[in-house]
Design goal:
A hairpin with a 3-residue loop joins strand 21 and strand 22. By secondary structure, the protein is α/β, with parallel strands linked by helices. It has 3 domains: about 230 residues, Vaccinia Virus protein VP39 (Rossmann fold), CATH 3.40.50; about 100 residues, no CATH class; about 100 residues, no CATH class. Helix 5 crosses helix 6. The protein has 11 helices and 25 strands. Bound molecules: S-adenosylmethionine. S-adenosylmethionine binds next to loops. The site of S-adenosylmethionine has 16 residues, from loops.
């Protein structure tokens, strides 16, 4: 992914193995148990490599979220501080198991989520608040500096029809004085910021900015007309989360069992836990790309789709889920679960039935020693990775040594697997008269520009496997 998605991810959510000592993860193919004297060291080593790679996958305003419990909470904190030196780090406590896990002295009901992002960025802050929790207050100012004369642009009528705010009138001239706080005009009511003592005050928002908060306003009927109230349905994220929605049994294990009856995976997160972690970052980022590389049953993908569902057609967030497929979890739980979320489940109409495309890839190790034979092999195996990088999956042309793909935005890529493919690709590309990103086979770092001189305005050339190997070299020093 550091080749295909460097600097492209908006949010990374991970829920790594917690290293409980109950053989919940493998290091070098062996389960790590509670008596392993290198238990924490092994876990840190595994996490350290993955977090460093994750850092370079993030966009400049990207956010890393990492779930954890008390087994590694402090070690993880130090590791994050080290790798993300100088970044902001925050941690929320989430009550995910209200029944508690019994210890000899304490019963643990909570876990944590760290949030990490570059200092000073305003990436988090929009928390949707439940309707009953919204704090409503009058839009009319009171107290000091609340008079009409303190801000003339804040004295205008708010137009109400059918008990809804439907518009705003012009600012009144200084010598215009409404007769009453609510004035009826035809089917409309014009509401002015006049208080009960008939003193002309001002609205909290000037005429030029009030439209931007129209959706936060509500109308309240009074004996003499209407009052206008404002209620913010968002706020900063609080640091302790306690809600039955986070119960991992109810909204994790049971949910996954309903979606994938054969699931043998016992530790999915509550989908609302993951949803509430990513939502504040992604509400406004409707085309965001989200990554989870400890995906397990795919809860993160489910949460991203739920966000898309809320936005209707404008929600186009994507996700990439990776998992090591212990107990075939990728094939037998994660993929079928997301498929079911897309298709819909009758018992979960609110959080399933969300149209999307889904693709499934298997990764494998490729010998990357730069011999000519390995280079050919690598290019042979790279098609899907290049399609993923360029987001072009529709195969439109296939020759013996080249392929052409496009996407719905009319982007075209060509992949040339062998020297012989160059001429046949060129012939086809000239017929199609499109611009192409062309991955062209080359044993060295040259992109074969001389062979494309006659169509240099149509092609952007990239030598493979050199561009891929260079990333391998950087990562596996
Ligand atoms: C705590 S679970 C994640 C659960 C997930 N959030 C969910 O709700 O289903 C951790 C997952 O990471 C996977 N895993 C463990 N080591 C891994 C590795 N080195 N690379 C990728 N996945 C790994 C495990 O198979 C397990 O499914």
């Amino acid at each position: 992914m550091n080749y295909t998605h460097k600097g492209r991810i908006d949010a990374i959510y991970i829920d790594p193995p917690f290293n409980t000592g109950a053989k919940d993860w493998k290091y070098n193919n062996n389960y790590v148990d509670v008596n392993d004297q290198w238990r924490h060291s092994k876990w840190l080593s595994m996490m350290s490599k993955r977090l460093q790679l994750a850092k370079s996958l993030l966009k400049r305003d990207g956010v890393l979220i990492c779930a954890i419990d008390d087994n590694e909470f402090h070690h993880l904190g130090c590791l994050l501080e080290d790798i993300f030196n100088g970044w902001e780090m925050h941690c929320v406590t989430i009550v995910h198991n209200p029944r508690g896990i019994q210890g000899s002295n304490f019963s643990y009901t909570h876990e944590y989520a760290y949030f990490v992002f570059r200092k000073g960025l305003k990436v988090i802050g929009a928390r949707r608040i439940k309707a009953e929790d919204i704090d409503w207050r009058s839009l009319r100012d009171n107290g000091g500096e609340s008079l009409r004369t303190d801000a003339r642009n804040c004295f205008y009528p708010i137009i109400v029809e059918d008990e809804k705010v439907v518009g705003f009138g012009d600012v009144l001239k200084n010598d215009e004085h409404p007769l009453k706080q609510t004035v009826k005009k035809g089917n409309s009511f014009y509401v002015y910021p006049i208080d009960k003592q008939a003193i002309e005050r001002k609205w909290r928002y000037a005429r030029q900015s009030v439209e931007s908060i129209q959706h936060l306003l509500r109308v309240k009927k009074t004996a003499k007309g209407y009052e206008i109230e404002i209620g913010k349905d968002f706020g900063t994220v609080r640091t302790v989360w306690q809600d039955s929605r986070y119960d991992s049994n109810e909204n994790g294990t049971k949910l996954v069992h309903a979606l994938v009856p054969d699931s043998t995976f016992d530790f999915p997160k509550s989908v609302f836990n993951t949803y509430d972690c990513i939502a504040p970052i992604l509400y406004e980022r409707k085309n965001a790309l989200v990554l989870d590389y400890f995906a397990g049953s795919g809860t993160t993908g489910h949460a991203v789709l739920m966000l898309n569902k809320e936005d209707g057609d404008s929600g186009k967030r994507k996700f990439i889920l990776c998992t090591n497929s212990e107990n075939k979890i990728a094939e037998e739980v994660c993929y079928p679960r997301i498929n079911k979320v897309i298709k819909g489940h009758k018992d979960y109409p609110d959080i399933t039935g969300i149209p999307a495309n889904l693709k499934y890839f298997k990764t494998d190790f490729v010998d990357a020693k730069p011999t000519d034979r390995n280079k050919k092999k690598l290019v042979d195996k790279s098609t899907e990775m290049l399609c993923l990088k360029e987001d072009c999956f529709d195969e439109v042309e296939k020759g013996s040594d080249f392929k052409i793909f496009k996407n719905s935005n009319n982007k075209y890529i060509g992949i040339i697997y062998d020297d012989d493919g160059i001429e046949s690709f060129k012939k086809e590309a000239k017929k199609m008269k499109k611009k192409f990103v062309v991955y062209v086979f080359s044993l060295d770092e040259s992109a074969r520009e001389e062979e494309f001189e006659d169509m240099s305005d149509m092609v952007q050339l990239k030598p493979i496997p050199a561009v891929i190997l260079n990333v391998y070299k950087r990562i596996f020093k």
